[in-house]
# Entry
Amino acid sequence: MNYVSEKNNKVFISGEIVSDATFSHEVFGEGFYEFFVRVMRLSGQADVLPVTLSERLIQDGMLAKGKPICALGQFRSYNKIENGKSRLMLTVFIRELIEELPDKNPNSILLSGYICKPPIYRTTPFNREIADVLIAVNRAYNKSDYIPCIAWGRNARFVKNLNVGDRIAISGRIQSREYQKKLSETETRTMTAYEVSVSKLAAFEAGEEFDIDSEFDLYSMQSKNAPLTAHLDY
# Structure
């Protein structure tokens, strides 16, 4: 399947490889490798993202630490069993390596899917509004990816009124975030969460035709001035 024809899950990243590539798994004789890429934000901070790449796309020396990488792909999820418990893992699955696009946002994602858990709305001690939402994004062969997203401000206020099963389209960036997991009364562990930080979003009704590429641009992720609404007329 041609990547450009898949419109419900698109990622563009451009950054620097910061870890060794390790073998992940094999599917129908095709090997896949995992590594981490540092992608800079406009603020000067960085997100360090997990990446999966097929051996078919690997050329000699291209995965060395410090090497630049520019790619199109998808943000995918899978379940990993750790200590007898299932844990949701996330990775940028690269579909195509491309030339560097220096004038484009180096970390862009576009998703459309279905809300699969009630959104969680809260405010910080500084009264910043936040909403967490989990989106199920359909993939080929009857598979789905479950992508955690976080919305802010007016987007958070909009998301909190949506329901499980509602269709939603978003654009934003993939972010990495460290947090402390409490293991016991005296022990904590630093963990890293990966999620989509939402910059633009729209909801649309079941059965409604929705051309996500006409609403959000893959590279710049600038919305075409569409209102935040539960119904878009296309």
